[in-house]
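Practice record 12: protein with (R)-mevalonate.
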Amino acid sequence: MDTNNTSSLTGFGAGKVILLGEHSVVYGYPALAGPLSRGVTAKGEPSNKCQLVIPDALMPEQRKVLKAAFGRAMAACGEPGVKVSFDTDLPLSMGLGSSGALSVACSRVLLQAAGRKASASEVAAVAWEMEQEFHGTPSGVDHTTSAMEQLILYRRKPGAEHGRAKVVDSPKPVKLVVVMAGARSPTKQTVGALRERQKRWSERYQRIFREIGLLASEGAEAVEEGDLEALGDVMNVNHGLLAALGLSSPGLDDMVHRLRNMGALGAKLTGAGGDGGAVIGLFQDTEPVVHELTRLGIRCFDSQLAGPRTEGTRGAA
Ligand code: MEV
């Protein structure tokens, strides 16, 4: 075991938001996703064995999954002598990619400890091992966005081991307000239930997945052209199709309408959705929206996904 070079290792894994194309991405269609400034930070210290410090607060089943996931990443890195702990400022279990962010953060530390290159593609390859343990049949969009830390158009053809990501540049800041709209069931469960529906009514569901894939590509073009109004419209249509697939809820719909009434160019659920989770709104100016929602006691924060950087603010999340 290698106990060298582990005195001060840290690795960050960004949370993510899916702007367009969640769920259909599992079936091989493109999704547009970008990194949050919030995420998971992992730290490594020298140890005589490779191990993860598992937070006491986790339930036995969560501990088991986390241990198994870390075991796969550890094996992929040759079990370097490092003890890894982590901390997060990302709201958990909200569809903001916390497991992908954790996978990326741990993978960065493990690769450094093993004396290997922690390039985005190396990190993504190790993180993929963990993500499969967390999610069963993930598309790979979460950990890829986290590892690349850029707005990407991501696509994974069914059966292919790895997806392809194209960086999407924006001439304008793409700013979102991210709002927590209630607890939700695990992603694995929501994805599994949709899989059952699509097996039963395959043609109808595939038609909708295909349409959502087209929206993701149109959204990427709108971003590149700096046409935020078109991007907002695509987001609205995408929310409607996610609702048609049975992936929204009264709480998510209410928040989407609230953000539109507050001037959002577009608003939709993000991530797996289902009975709760996060909603995103696209705004030119996010600050007054975060201020007002926070005043009302609604958990939210803002984030810039792409484009020239300007100073942003954050609400309590
Ligand atoms: C989860 O963040 C996104 C889903 O599309 C699942 C996946 O891509 O693996 C719902």
